[in-house]
Amino acid sequence: MVRTGTRSGDFLRLCHAGLVIYVVRWLEMLAIAIFVFERTHAPFLVAMLTVARLVPMAMFGAPIGALAERIDRRGALISIVAAMTLCSASLALLAARGQLAIWQLVIASVIGGIGWASDNPIRRVMLGEVAGRARMGFAMSLDVALSNISRMIGPVLGGAIFAVLGLAGAFTASVVLYATALAALFCLRATGERPAQGQPAMLAHLREGFALVRRDRRLFGILLITALYNLFGWPFTSLVPVIGAGALHLSPQGVGLLASMDGIGAFFGALVLAAWLRPRHYALAYVGGMACYQLMIGLFAAFDHPLPAGIALLVEGFGSAGYSIMQATLIYLAAPPGMRARLLGVLSVAIGMAPIGLVHIGLLANWLGARNAVMLSAAEGLLALAATWPLWRIVMTPMAEAAASGEA
Fold it and tell me: Could you tell me the domains of the chain?
């Protein structure tokens, strides 16, 4: 048995590494978006840079999940963070020399996306193993709270550093932050379950995971809602800098502050949910969170003044907290113990639907303008959610029954 103190220390180390990865993600996405928009004035190209970061989710999420059950997860996580550190250091050097091109940012975004695709099946599985099944909801609430802190810190930091030091300064800050994450990961002691011996081939693992999703309508419903969110909801974030700079006439610092509003709302939402949410309400928080998110992003795009637009993002963040916390939690709780990494990898594939959504909203923005594109995408998401109500009713009913039996 691993001592409780060791598990607590490792839980904090994994949370610290997650916070750094989250902060750098938002810092770099905002700095790159401002840089590309200033260079090209093309909203579609800004959206495509985010697509490059998300394509690996769809391509590699499931294979990484299957692989995570066969390898040392600690070593894999260290290698991934080290690779992203090296990538940011290279970009900082190129930017400082004035040699940075947009195609290099595309490659860097793909590398960052591979790291992102690894988070659910590697780091979050490790978090669940260290926290234990009974505390998984709390662990995910805390992890999502940290993710939302990063959505406050990352854009503000990215906008401020970009305004003063340019893109080179933003990537240098990434390197410094990654170094602290690597230090924490090298100090990990207990890493949960060991990879099982004599497992079937990885392709067989993948087939088993997808076969279970086809059989289990609850799992299928959870993943469908994730896909809808990433098709019609999350892609709007790529246009926040465009709306902030173009329609609301904000400075880079102002764009960063605006982009942080949903993170502020999501952070406080996560704290409230961590304190009050009970297992019987998990699925309701998941579906209701997505509905709130879609409604608020439509209102954000409709406002002509930064203050009401920021308030809409604040409320949107509260909705996203319920959705984000429950996304991995429901999969983890519904999956058989030996298949959690695989199914969290499949979850990454559903998240990887976002590139399609980004292409969709990017084309709409070029055709109708950024604000109209966000409003239309928000309406499409609400209609799609309403159309799939039989499936998300199935998601909620078994979870409520399971939670009731577990709490009895």
Answer: 4-190+202-407 (1.20.1250.20)
Q: Alpha-carbon distance 382 to 30, whole Å? A: 27
Compute the Cα dihedral for 298, 304, 306, 307 and give only its sign: negative
What's the rounded Cα separation, in Å, for the pair 303 and 354?
25
CA atoms within 13 A on the CB side of 59: 12
CA distances (Å), origin 117, targets 37, 122, 289, 351? 26, 9, 23, 9
The answer to whether the CB of 43 falls within 8 A of the CB of 228 is no
Q: CB of 68 within 8 A of CB of 341?
A: yes
pLDDT single digits (tens) 62-121: 677 667 667 777 888 899 899 999 999 999 999 998 888 888 888 888 888 888 777 767
Q: What are phi and psi of 200, to 5 degrees?
A: -65, 170
Asked if 200 and 323 touch (Cβ cutoff 8 Å), the reply is: no
Please give the Cα distance from 309 to 332 (Å, whole number).
Answer: 35
Question: What pLDDT score was predicted for residue 205?
Answer: 58
Label residue 303 by pLDDT band (50, 70, 90).
Answer: very high
C-alpha span between 254 and 260 (Å, rounded): 10
Does residue 200 have a pLDDT over 70? no
The candidate with the shortest Cα–Cα distance to 54, out of 309, 310, 235, is: 235
**What pTM was estimated for this model as a whole?**
0.66
* Per-residue burial over 100-124, b = 16 or more CB atoms within 10 Å of its CB, e = otherwise: beeeebeebbbbbbbbbbbbbbbbb
Helix, coil or strand: residue 101: coil
Q: Would you give the DSSP letter of residue 353?
A: T
Give dist(CA 300, CA 312) in Å, integer.
Answer: 5
Secondary structure string (H, E, C) spanning 35-86: HHHHHHCCHHHHHHHHHHHHHHHHHHHHHHHHHHCCCCHHHHHHHHHHHHHH
